[in-house]
Amino acid sequence: LGFGIRSIKANEEAANSMGINTTYHKVVAWAISAFFTSLAGAIYAYWMSFIAPDEVFDVMIAVNTIVIMLIGGAGSILGPIIGAFLFELLSEVTWSTFLEYHLAVLGITIIIIVFFVPKGVIGTFTDLMKRRGLKLRKKVTI
Predict the structure, then answer these.
(1) Which among 3, 6, 37, 8 has a CA at the least distance from the CA of 23?
(2) Which residue spans traverse the membrane (predicted)?
(3) How far apart are CA 75 and CA 118, in angstroms?
(4) pLDDT tens column, 80-97
């Protein structure tokens, strides 16, 4: 599944011509994504024991998710985990230090991080290790 999705990402027409069922791989990837999204929603509903549309469909949830991915780095499992930790740490520090302007300070800090570390923490760490000549494990596909 992992190699099929990677080949679709690289060139869908070439993957299709090599015999990879691109429709199947896309549907399976979508189903896996939908499973984990619905699992998160079910856990959230159980934890809150109440769901209100203005809380669940808040645009800031999507914005925070994208910012977490940008900080940690896309394309890995560890990147968003590190990004979530750093985002929450940064959010709490700015909230406690700059009470009135915490959103502005947080936004400027995130813009600076994204501007100077475009690959995220994981991508920058990987690049540093490659420059030093250290070999990293190859990515494991599903």
Answers:
(1) 8
(2) 27-47, 59-83, 103-129
(3) 13
(4) 999 999 999 988 888 888
Angle of helix 102-116 relative to helix 78-97, nearest 10 degrees, comes to: 140
User: What is the residue whose two structure tokens read 């070999």?
Assistant: 135
Domains of the chain by residue range: 1-51, 58-142
C-alpha 72/C-alpha 81 separation (Å) is 7
- Asked whether the predicted pLDDT for residue 119 surpasses 60, the reply is yes
* Helix/strand/coil percent split, the chain, to 5: 75, 0, 25
Of 40, 125, 130, 21, nearest to 82 (Cα)?
A: 125
User: What pLDDT band is residue 16 in, cutting at 50, 70 and 90?
Assistant: very high
User: Rounded distance, CA 110 to CA 121, Å?
Assistant: 13
Residue carrying structure tokens 């929603």: 41
Amino acid, single-letter form, for residue 62: A
User: Closest Cα to residue 113, out of 94, 100, 132?
Assistant: 94
